[in-house]
Design brief:
355 residues; alpha/beta; Rossmann fold; Alpha-Beta Plaits; 2 domains; 7-stranded parallel sheet; 4-stranded antiparallel sheet; 10 helices; 13 strands; 39% helix; 18% strand
Length: 355
């Protein structure tokens, strides 16, 4: 196997054997390109020979002899076991897996879904992920990584597409449970994606992460030694920070948590709550926002609202403050006293070594 200087960001994965189920999709294409560029052997299952040849044409010159397109249905437990066994037989093992297995479903509220909706949007997709995980994780090489690809709908509810949100949330919990169960024996990552620029979504915003950047993060996870974790990839800047973290073990920026308390004027409680409900989706959609929640006190006699927010960096929080400035007068009109600047906190001290 010739490496041909196949390095991505200084990472050489020559000789690594990588499985990418869902690799013919838009996000999967980025992972396939990135691992091929890093020198790995990449196995991509497809439904038909025709689809395999179409994908080879899509890749163009990137489709080297290290690309292994196989016609195989991996969406059942038996199918995934068969694929993993064949990969071990033909290539000698499995080092890494990137799983951008997915689809989209929308159009009905949860109270309107039928059994076929449930099976298609939740059961079948979740089964495919669980089948690949079960078949592959026990056979990963000690230095390998399993990268589960999910969307932001895993943490943000999407009305009329709730089955997708539920399924993605279940996958995120699968990564967390696996990490707890494996205890460091294998590394399992969840890459949580914001909007992605792919060949199917070329008309995208300037901050959208690209499929190739998603692939570069996965390659960095494979090449590094950092334990498995959840990685937020909401935009291109987040991808750069993730690669730095995976490469160096440190992040260039530190997340911040903010806390503020609002006490409404007597009789204005519902107006304040309605305004916060209006603003919540906008704030959660801001670049760098990791969490926004509002909590009403249980003291019915003198209610107050606690606002908790988490941002990827102080800069992201400051950008939020600039955006929300136009709403301060609306909020202040409903409060007993003018809103005070929120208290700002840094890293979770429980994660610091020795604490």
């Amino acid at each position: 196997m010739s490496t041909n200087d196949t390095k991505l960001g200084g990472r050489d994965l020559s000789g690594r054997r990588v499985l990418v189920p869902g690799g013919t999709g838009g996000v999967g294409e980025g992972a396939v390109r990135s691992y091929l560029a890093a020198g790995a052997d990449v196995v991509v299952p497809t439904r038909t020979e025709q689809r395999a040849e179409e994908f080879r044409r899509v890749l163009g010159d990137a489709a080297t002899d290290r690309l292994h397109l196989v016609v195989h249905d991996y969406t059942s437990f038996a199918g995934a076991e068969g694929l993993a066994a064949e990969m071990r037989r033909s290539l000698g093992g499995i080092d890494d897996v990137v799983a951008p297995i997915g689809g989209f479903w929308s159009g009905r509220r949860l109270t309107e879904i039928g059994e076929s909706d449930w099976r298609t949007a939740f059961v079948e997709l979740a089964t495919a992920h669980a089948a690949v995980m079960r078949a592959c994780v026990p056979h990963l090489s000690p230095s390998g990584a399993y990268c589960l690809i999910v969307g932001e709908s895993a943490t943000t509810p999407v009305p009329t597409a709730g089955l997708v949100s539920m399924e993605q949330s279940a996958l995120l919990m699968m990564q967390r449970v696996l990490t707890a169960e494996l205890g460091g024996d294998r590394r399992v990552f969840a890459l949580v994606l914001g909007p992605v620029r792919t060949r199917f979504a070329a008309d995208a915003g300037p901050g959208w992460i690209t499929a190739d950047e998603v692939g570069a993060v996965a390659v960095a996870a494979s090449a590094g030694s950092l334990p498995g974790r959840e990685i937020q990839l909401r935009d291109r800047a987040a991808a750069g920070r993730a690669i730095a973290l995976l490469r160096d073990g440190t992040s260039r920026v530190e997340p911040v948590v903010t806390m503020s308390t609002m006490r409404p004027k007597p009789g204005r409680e519902n107006e304040l709550l309605d305004l916060l409900r209006e603003l919540a989706p906008r704030i959660r959609a801001e670049p760098g926002c990791l969490r926004y929640s509002a909590h009403l006190t249980r003291d019915a006699g003198h209610p107050a609202v606690l606002i908790l927010m988490e941002f990827e960096s102080r800069e992201a929080f400051e950008a939020h403050s600039a955006r929300i400035a136009g709403q301060v007068s609306r909020i202040a009109a409903l409060l007993e006293t003018p809103p005070a600047p929120p208290a700002l906190f840094g890293s979770d001290v429980a994660t610091v070594s020795g604490v």
